[in-house]
Amino acid sequence: MSSDVHALLARLPGFPVLAGQRVRLRGPGAADADGVFALFSDPAVMRYWTSVPMQVRAQAEGKVEEMCTEFTHRDRIHWLVTERRGDAVIGSCSLFRFDARRRLAEIGYALRSDHWGRGLATEAVSLVLDWGFHALALRRVEADIDARNDASRRLLARLGFQREDPPRPRFIAGHTLADAEVHALPAQAWQARGR
Ligand SMILES: CC(C)(COP(=O)(O)OP(=O)(O)OC[C@H]1O[C@@H](n2cnc3c(N)ncnc32)[C@H](O)[C@@H]1OP(=O)(O)O)[C@@H](O)C(=O)NCCC(=O)NCCS
Description:
By secondary structure, the protein is α+β, with helices and mostly antiparallel strands. The protein is built from 7 helices and 9 strands, in the order αββαααβββαβαβββα.
């Protein structure tokens, strides 16, 4: 069977729902506009994001539509994170920039600030990594973060990512010039965890 990332993406029978002990990751739908707005309009969440906080709910409606279309085209996979019991959106996690030749993808994640410090993001990102390394046979996952984003760096280190390049200046949220860092996790390092 082909291990080409795009062929594996194309063969997915539907949106891959992932369930852990405390969180569940599912696909987006029109009913999620309020939850997506609450997440991406929070200035604390958007502090180091590549876009500015949403101002109006219509932006969240557009974002949900875009997430659905990107899954239809298998360009990006945007999971919405909920607690295991309950269906309200408390975060998101995405795989994108699929590179078939290098069997590589990039990961991004955000959690509502009233849920920080509980280990839920670590669990959600772990589920996505596990899925990406198995279902898509990825060899490597990268994260591109603002060098000032200590919570994100701690999360990546906890999961075994290592910083790749020296930080380089990059515009964040369209306004600020800040250093960005690439952190990478090879499949072997992920599979060696817990051995
Ligand atoms: C990055 C982000 C998702 C991390 O969220 P978080 O709450 O720190 O991450 P977790 O949910 O995994 O929680 C981990 C923390 O909870 C603590 N914790 C408490 N109970 C825990 C448990 N049962 N299991 C694991 N960790 C637990 C950990 O010790 C850790 O604390 P520390 O960071 O002080 O070491 C969050 O800061 C965020 O959404 N930021 C805004 C969006 C963003 O910048 N995303 C990254 C851009 S790619």
